Amino acid sequence: MKETLYTIPLTDAFMAADECPLCFVERNVEQDLLDLVLGSSASYMESDMREETDKAGFCRAHFKKMFDYGNTLGNAWILKTHYIAMEKEFEKQVKMYSPGKSSFLNKLKKAEEGSDPMAAWIKEKEKSCYICDHYATTYERYLDTFFFMYKKDDGMKKMIENSKGFCLHHFGDICDRMERELSDAQRAELTELLFTKTQENLKRVGEDVAWLIEKFDYRNKDADWKDSKDAVQRGMQKLWGGYPADPVYQQSK
C-alpha cells in the first residue's frame, strides 16, 4: 500500500522498534497537544482556543505536564480565563444547591447513590480535560487506520510479526475493536498473531527483569547484562503503557 499522511505516523511507530507502537503514537500525540496549547505558536492567546480550554479544563495529570512544560505566561493566561469560567459555574451550582432536610433513610440512600449535586458537578469537571478529550479523538483515528491497514495491506501483518507486540493496555484496545472491524476469518488470523506475539514478548520482558535481579548478585557481577539494563521501565510499559523513564517534556527553547 502506498503510504499516505494518515498511514505514515503509524508506520513510523512500528519502525521505532519500541515495546508498543501505540505507546509511541500516544506519546507523540500528547506532546503535539502540549505544543498546541502552550507552544511557540501561542495558541493560548487565541480566543477560540481559550474558549475551548475554559469549557473543558484539564485533568490533574495534564495540569502537571503543562506546569512541567515551562510556559509560565501561557499557563497563567489559560488559568486566568478558566478561573473566570469556573467561578461563574460554581456560583450557578451554589444557587441551585439546596441541602434541605432529609430522613435517615434518605441520607442512607444518598450516601449509596452519591447523589449530592455539588459532588456530582465536581466529579464531572474532574473528568473533563481538553488534552485527554482531543487525544481520545485522535487515538480513535489511529485505531481506525490500524484496522484499515490490516485489511488492505499485507505489510501491516509483516510489521506486527516483526514488532515487539503491544503493551497490555493497547493490546486490549485492539481486541475490543476486532469484532466490529474484521470478518471472522480476519479476526481469527489477527487473534492468533497478536496472542502469540503478546505471550512471546511478555515472557521476553519478564526474563529481562529476572536477569536484572540476578545481576545484583555479586556472583554475576562480571556477567553480561544482556538486555536487562532498562528492564524495569520496559517491564512497566509492557504491562500498562507509557514511558516511565521519559524526561519531562518541556517547551523548546
Chain-wise SSE layout:
Blueprint: H1 8-15, H2 21-38, H3 47-56, H4 60-69, H5 72-96, H6 104-113, H7 117-127, H8 130-152, H9 154-161, H10 168-181, H11 184-215, H12 231-240
Helix pairs in contact: 1-2, 2-8, 3-5, 8-9, 10-11, 11-12
Report the biggest beta sheet as strand number plus sense, adding barrel if it closes: none
Count of DSSP-assigned helices: 12
Number of strands: 0
Shape descriptor reads globular
* Helix/sheet category: mainly alpha
How much beta, percentage-wise? under 5%
Query: What's the Cα radius of gyration?
Result: 23 Å
Averaged pLDDT:
91
Tally of discrete structural domains: 1
Distance between the termini: 39 Å
List the secondary-structure elements in sequence, H or E: HHHHHHHHHHHH
Helicity level, as a percent range? over 70%
Q: Outline the low-pLDDT stretches.
A: none
Kindly describe this structure.
By secondary structure, this protein is an all-alpha fold. It has one domain. It is 71% helix and 0% strand. The longest helix has 32 residues. It is globular. The two termini are 39 Å apart.
What keywords describe this structure?
253 residues, mainly alpha, 12 helices, globular
Compact description:
With 253 residues, this protein is an all-alpha fold.
